[in-house]
Design brief:
heterotrimer, A alpha+beta (172), B alpha+beta (986), C alpha+beta (274), A: alpha+beta, C: 274 residues, Uridine Diphospho-n-acetylenolpyruvylglucosamine Reductase, domain 2, Enolase-like, domain 1, 14 strands, 33% helix, binds flavin-adenine dinucleotide, binds FE2/S2 (inorganic) cluster
């Protein structure tokens, strides 16, 4: 039972997007700060640090969760996935990312990483997710730019494509 | 990909911005590397709405781990001067408080440490002694003679008072058969981008220069304000912006006082300093939109035609008049008649200061405030005259044949077909069906209403409009201000590829994509051939005071400037090509990545080859052509002249038109508003990218829906701030925002290079009042206030309640009242009254009965001091408490008053205690009122009532116990029993 | 918004956790899902000297139906209960209430017991527990005890739990044949804490209504079945809760909702008897 002292840094190890990572953190360091400023993965954003906006959402052991409400030391040994781990290759986008681009599901892109992490989990857990399911999953995210309508379109289209029902059609 | 002859503008091409943003490779300010040794700052902020600062002790903070510097207002003042104020009044404007705080969230001290965690640790060690002052929150109350004065130098709270008169308004009112008048309030809200402010600043003592990176959005007129405040010439303030910014909607204009603070902090600390605003700071301290109290009267003919308007606007700019305020009040000055042809206008504009956060740019900027009054009035005219609101709108819209139309107050409405757009919207949006839905719903007894709005959306602000706040003579003295300089640079490099730079500082609007389209069209290339940079560096880039991302100026002005620059460069390259191809320049076409002869398509060369010629072989250029490498265009429309002697102002260059209507239903039980259908028709001139225009409309609509139904910065009467978290300031989620029906008409603007007009702000102007009109229609209300809170609507629906006997009558709805707590109760003590009385006056006893008291010190017989730890659940804080006893009637009654203050907040309260003895036992009756402010009130308001009751309950519980009530074994058990004793639980 | 410093103990066994609580007294906090504790830490509203993370204690990870009740261990996340296939049948009120607790992203981390321990007066799970007449199992190094939900909640974020105790589990009585259950909540936005939340149980002879969001803790009361006496009883109940104003709703609105929604949920529960 390791007791980690307040004023010292401690080794934290976990799996990030499929690769082992390690870094040092005081017990109080938030996972957001650890990902962004210790590991340099700045794709996970910070918008409120009290759990409401959803910008910091990452997958912890497969479940979307607020990185701002998680201490780095809490995820010792866990599997973390962030937006940096979504694309199949550096020059290719995932189906979900592709639909966001096609439907203008983002403007400033600040809320987007969190939203993608929530939707990615929903669509892989429930390929048949309904519009209502998607809304409920997205209710934990604030977007100030899009008014959500383009995000809903992108999500529904991604769901369709992931089920193999037709291609992305941009709203040209 | 089809290349030849294709035009890119007008297509929803995928955005070039997206790939990086979707994969976590955005470059927002907090993502960028800083120099090794960069320190981080935290800002201590005022918990009081209005108080004098008696003392600040920073010694403990200075000595704390990791701390490099601690700055107070005095340290900042020593190195800066006051930021300029936009009115002629004896007012100063500092980015940090010195002897007085004027709003909750005002900076009081800055801690610079090796990281933010340590900076916040040290911040907790700063001790500030405040002397609370009465606060003023309401703008009309602020005008009253006995209102607390916020700036003693001004001597009152009125910062500006100007009256304007256009046409013959008095005669029109005298002649009109009807006068319809309303008084409305527009609330305080803010567009709260999801990314907060960020600044990284550095000082070079060798050159006495500052280098600042900030997610500032412009206008770059503010650059002059900052450099003057920092007491350096403009060229010693290098201001850069990061490549990406997480939304702004105007708000990030307000980062500039923090640029001053961090620049000074870096200078004092001797190292670069970074500050990333957190959400609590943002909600309490970042700029918000103005709230406004408006009285508006119309002279109306029998057919609903408005012949004159009489405006009286009282604008609340908060605690300081920060640049560019009072611009919110004047941005619409040319448009005070909205979409209507009204020739006679009276305006009185007053600007007041209150104990709220200073205001600044926010999406809609003055429009929501104006249209809320104007369009509520139009509905009231229809009601009072028994007309269909649509007919009132029709009777007043500027006729299509009248464009360009000069409004009474000086705007030139450049183009439009208001009536045509409105009729098309009614037809295409299903208005007839909506009426049927309403009738069907009403037949079932449901509350269903329809609202309408017609709105002119101004864009591309005239930098001179704000000078309308000055008297014409003052204006003359200050020198003319006008125009809207837009800049763009298009350049080719040695391999002939094209780069564009504009000073537009986008915050997510996809400027890079659109500029790629615009320039590709001119040069016959693909958008992917064009590389666009939009980040700014004031030392290296072309810019002017109007640069930046505001007033929806991108499509009409900036894209137009880029078009002009590309065209000029194209013409130069055409001359080079003409020489190479042996044709006349007029015969040259740019198409499909090649440059060739129009008459002989075979005769063509690759674009890159010709474009690179100046770099490699300048000697081969035709006579008189210096180069074809780079073109920078500064474009300003001649239409934007300075305000005239008669105070006529063409406040904006172009004017879109919006016609909205919606059907809403109000739940009879809960008072909740459901939007059944929302139709919004836009004429924003030429559409450059339909997907982005749609995104601006749906995004603006969501902001507006928030303003209509959810969002408000609420303040207590004592100045306390009550919307301190995203659980209190309610930003709508996907569950609350319906998808509006979007319709378009295209009337190109004759005054912008591409025929485009702005589109970003319109729904923030039209939608709040459209929803309000619909709710008023549904419920038959004459007055509605935003946000349309269910509790308030329900109070109109539910019959008044009768309080059971022995209970005070229910208090009036007081949603924005102070965080005042009231309560009462009784306790029975197994001791005679005299014993209880003696205990109340004995420090020893007080020590044991005051919850969490550490040391009670008797200053006099009726004055005690104590250190107490108070808490609700895990939220414990240490406070200093002062307790006074008054109105002593031994052993029957006493008034106990107390004040506490500590890191988590402060409170004051009074308790009236009565002792009644019966058979050796004493009934102790108490009634209290308390006010709580500071951090706990801002972030935990919802829980406070219960907490205060709990703590006060604790006090009387222990008093009872001490006086012979059963002694408890441990704390919680006793509380529960005591609670039952006090009748708290059934 | 960064937490103040604290030690962190990742307890592997219950004894380790209880020892740490006993040693640190009031300055220790249990860390469960962190969905309430972390916001308070980030705002520096709380300053524990040590956090005791109980989420890796295997013994606390169980959900068990026994003795007519569902016992939920301290390390069970809300999502695990929500995804239990049969919860709609075995305890429909709990199933309905769970869906209103924050958002999917917070339920993925937040625990059932953490919500009970936190005792927010507007929270749904404390309300469901009180409505159903559930129990809280407390444990310290020295002793175990069971407290009825109705006496456990002492006020806003205040409970009967002592500093050296932790909640080991809570038990929700399972659905009883012949009893109908209903739940409704009004908040400003979806996922917000309730302005008023109502939970009702109705059987052949009586109704029981519990209200959250109005008093400083969830309160349950026996009420007449739908009929002529119900309105007056609801009115009395509404007044007894001592509703207060805040920026989201007035006291009167809360009372009105208790009267009106209260009746609706009781009627709905009566319909669901079966
Ligand atoms: C955006 C957002 C919205 C939310 N909305 C709602 C909502 O609508 N309704 C609602 O009910 N909740 C809501 N919550 C809070 C809810 O998500 C929390 O999960 C819950 O209140 C606490 O559970 P936790 O496991 O996260 O506990 P923690 O945060 O870990 O702990 C909470 C408190 O309980 C104590 N504690 C935890 N477990 C134990 C134990 N076993 N024994 C003793 N003490 C313990 C901790 O010391 C701490 O004081 C919301 C939270 C967020 C961030
Ligand atoms: S930053 Fe984590 S939810 Fe907002
Ligand atoms: S895209 Fe800007 S906040 Fe969502």
């Amino acid at each position: 039972m390791p007791r980690l002292g307040a004023d010292r840094r401690h080794e934290v190890r976990f799996t990030l997007n499929g690769r082992p990572v390690e870094g040092e953190a005081e017990p109080r360091m938030l996972l957001t700060d650890f990902l962004r400023h210790v590991l340099g993965r700045t794709g996970t954003h910070v918008g409120c640090e009290h759990g409401v906006c959803g910008a910091c959402t990452v997958q912890i052991d497969g479940a979307p969760a607020r990185a701002c409400l998680t201490l780095a030391v809490q995820v010792e040994g866990a599997e973390i996935r962030t937006v940096e781990g979504l694309a199949p290759a550096p020059d290719r986008l995932s189906v979900l990312q592709e639909s966001f681009r096609a439907h203008h599901g983002l403007q400033c892109g600040f809320c987007t990483p969190g939203i993608l992490m929530s939707l990615d989990e929903l669509l892989s857990r429930r390929p048949d997710a309904s519009e209502d399911d998607i809304r409920h999953q997205l209710s934990g995210h604030l977007c100030r730019c899009t008014g959500y309508a383009p995000i809903m379109k992108a999500a529904l289209d991604a769901a369709r494509r992931l089920r193999g029902e037709g291609e992305t059609a941009a709203d040209a | 990909m089809e290349l030849a002859g294709q035009t890119w503008v007008g297509q929803s091409v995928p955005r070039v911005e997206d790939a990086a943003l979707l994969t976590g490779r955005g470059r927002f300010i907090d993502d960028l590397a800083t120099r090794p040794g960069t320190l981080e700052a935290a800002i201590l902020r005022s918990p009081h709405g209005h108080a004098e600062i008696r003392a600040i002790d920073v010694e403990k903070a200075r000595a704390a781990r990791g701390v490099v510097a601690v700055l107070t207002g005095r340290d900042v003042q020593a190195l800066t001067s006051s930021m300029v104020v936009g009115v002629k009044a004896p007012l100063e404007c500092w980015p940090i408080a010195t002897d007085r705080v004027r709003y909750v969230g005002e900076p009081v001290a800055i801690v610079v440490a090796t990281n933010r965690y340590l900076a916040e640790d040290a911040m907790d060690l700063i001790e500030v002694e405040y002397g609370a002052l009465p606060a003023v929150i309401d703008p009309l109350a602020a005008l009253e003679a006995d209102a607390p004065v916020i700036h003693p130098s001004l001597g009152r709270n009125l910062a500006s008072d100007r009256s304007f008169r256009y046409g013959e308004p008095e005669a029109a009112f005298a002649a009109a058969p009807h006068r319809v008048e309303i008084a409305v309030r527009y609330p305080r809200n803010s567009c709260t981008p999801i990314e907060c402010y960020g600044v990284v600043a550095e000082y070079d003592p060798g050159e006495d220069s500052y280098d600042v990176l900030a997610n500032f959005q412009g206008p770059f007129s503010i650059h002059a304000v900052i450099s003057r405040a920092l007491k350096v010439p403009g060229n010693r303030l290098r201001l850069r912006t990061p490549p990406d910014s997480g939304g702004s909607f105007g708000v990030k204009q307000g980062v500039f006082p923090y640029i001053v603070l961090m620049a000074v902090a870096a200078r004092v600390a001797g190292a670069p300093v970074k500050w990333i605003e957190d959400r609590l700071e943002n909600l309490a301290g970042a700029v918000s939109a103005t709230n406004r109290a408006t009285r508006l009267a119309a002279a109306v003919e029998r057919d609903g035609r408005i012949t004159a308007l009489d405006w009286d606007q009282v604008e609340d700019c908060g605690a300081h008049l920060r640049a560019p305020e009072p611009a919110t009040l004047y941005r619409m000055h040319g448009n005070m008649t909205g979409a209507y042809a009204v020739r006679n206008v009276l305006i009185r504009n007053r600007v007041v200061l209150t104990n709220k956060t200073p205001t600044g740019l926010n999406r809609g900027f003055g429009g929501p405030q104006v249209y809320f009054a104007l369009e509520r009035l139009v509905q009231r005219i229809a009601l009072e005259l028994g007309l269909d609101p649509l007919d009132v709108i029709r009777a007043n819209l500027v006729p299509t044949a009248a464009f360009p139309y000069k409004t009474a107050t000086g705007a030139i409405l450049d183009s439009g077909d208001y009536l045509g757009s409105m009729e098309a919207a009614l037809l295409e949006g299903g208005h007839a069906e909506l009426l049927r839905r309403r009738d069907a719903a009403r037949a079932e007894g449901r509350l269903y209403g329809i609202g309408y709005t017609a709105v002119v959306e101004p864009s591309v602000s005239n930098m001179g409009y704000i000078t309308a706040v000055l008297q014409p003579a003052e204006r003359k003295k200050a020198g003319p201000k006008n125009g809207a300089q837009a800049t763009a640079t298009v350049a080719v490099d040695p391999v002939g590829s094209v780069t564009v730079h504009v000073a537009s500082v986008p915050q997510g609007q996809g400027h890079r994509t659109v500029l790629g389209q615009v320039v590709a069209d001119v040069l016959g290339l693909r958008p992917s051939d064009i590389r666009v940079a939009t980040d700014m560096d004031t030392v290296k880039d072309a810019w002017s005071i109007a640069s930046g991302n505001y007033a929806s100026r991108f499509a009409p002005a900036v894209a137009g400037a880029a078009h002009l620059a590309a065209t000029r460069l194209r013409d130069r390259i055409a001359r080079v090509a003409a020489g190479q191809l042996n044709v006349r320049p007029e015969d040259i076409v740019f198409r499909g990545g090649r440059i060739g002869s129009a008459s002989n398509p075979e005769n063509a060369v690759p674009f890159t080859r010709v474009a690179a010629a100046t770099h490699w072989a300048p000697g081969t250029l035709p006579e008189g052509l210096e180069h074809a490498i780079r073109e920078t265009v500064f474009w300003t429309p001649p239409e934007l002249a300075a305000p005239t002697e008669a105070d006529e102002v063409n406040s904006s260059l172009c004017h879109g038109f919006i016609f909205d209507y919606c059907g809403v239903e109000v739940d009879r039980v809960t008072g909740e508003v459901r939007i059944d259908r929302y139709v919004t028709m836009h004429d924003c001139g030429r559409i450059l990218h339909p997907g982005m225009v749609a995104g601006q409309v749906t995004g603006g609509f969501a902001h507006a829906l928030g303003a209509a139904l959810y969002e408000e910065y609420s303040y207590g009467a004592d100045g306390s701030f009550q919307s301190g978290t995203f659980a209190d300031y309610l930003v709508p989620t996907v569950m609350e925002v319906p998808e509006p029906i979007l319709l378009h008409r295209e009337t190109r603007s004759p005054v912008t290079p591409l025929g485009a007009k702005g589109v970003g702000e319109g729904n923030c102007m039209s939608t709040p009042v459209c929803i309000a009109n619909a709710v008023a229609d549904a419920m038959g209300l004459a007055d509605v206030t935003l946000p349309l809170v269910p509790a308030v609507l329900a109070s109109h629906l539910h019959p008044a309640e009768t309080a059971p006997k022995g209970r005070p009558a229910a208090t009036a709805p007081a949603l924005s009242g102070a965080r005042q707590l009231f309560g009462e109760g009784t306790a029975e003590v197994a001791a005679p009254a005299q014993t209880v009385w003696d205990m109340l006056l004995d420090p020893q006893t007080l020590q044991t009965v005051i919850p969490g008291a550490h040391g009670v010190e008797k200053v006099s017989d009726t004055h005690f001091k104590a250190d107490v730890t108070l808490g609700v659940g895990p939220v414990k804080g240490r406070y200093r408490a002062e307790i006074h006893l008054a109105d002593l009637v031994p052993p029957r009654s006493v008034t106990l008053s107390g004040e506490t203050s500590g890191a988590l907040g402060f409170g004051s309260g009074r308790g009236f205690i009565t002792l009644t003895e019966t058979e050796g036992r004493t009934i102790l009756g108490y009634r209290y009122e308390a006010a709580i402010g500071g951090k706990v009130a801002s972030v935990g308001g919802r829980l406070l009532d219960g907490a205060a009751r709990f703590v006060i309950g604790q006090f009387f519980a222990s008093l009872a116990r001490h006086a012979g009530g059963q002694a408890g074994e441990s704390r919680p058990g006793v509380f529960a029993r005591v609670r039952r004793l006090f009748g708290g639980a059934p | 918004m960064k937490p103040p410093p604290f030690d962190y103990l990742r307890a592997d066994t219950l004894d380790e956790a209880l020892d740490a609580l006993a040693a640190a007294g009031p300055d220790a906090r249990v860390l469960a899902g962190g969905q309430s504790l972390l916001p308070m830490l980030n705002m520096r509203l709380v300053r524990p000297t040590i956090l005791v993370d109980v989420m890796r204690i295997g013994a606390l990870r169980t959900v068990e139906a026994r003795g007519g009740a569902l016992e939920v261990g301290a390390a069970v996340r809300q999502v695990e209960l929500e995804r239990r296939a049969d919860l709609d049948q075995t305890q429909p009120l709990l199933a309905a209430a769970l869906r209103w607790v924050g958002h999917a992203q917070t339920r993925n981390r937040g625990t059932v017991c953490g919500s009970i321990a936190h005792a927010d007066p507007s929270a749904e799970l404390p309300l469901a527990l009180v409505a159903l007449g559930g129990e809280i199992r407390l444990r310290s190094r020295r002793k175990r005890r069971v407290v009825a939900a109705e006496t456990f909640f002492a006020g806003s974020m205040a409970t009967e739990r002592r500093d050296d105790e932790m909640i080991e589990s809570v038990t929700f009585p399972l659905r009883k044949p012949g009893t109908g259950y209903a739940f409704r909540e009004i908040g400003r936005r979806h996922g917000d804490f309730a302005i008023v939340a109502c939970a009702a149980l109705v059987d052949a002879t009586s109704a029981r209504l519990a209200i959250g969001g109005v008093a400083d803790r969830p309160v349950a009361r026996a009420l007449p079945l739908p009929g002529p006496d119900l309105d007056e009883a609801l009115d009395g109940f509404a007044w007894s809760l001592e509703a207060r104003d805040d920026i989201h709703a007035t006291a009167r609105y809360r009372r009105d909702l208790v009267r009106r929604l209260g009746r609706q949920v009781i009627e709905e529960a009566a319909r669901c008897r079966g």
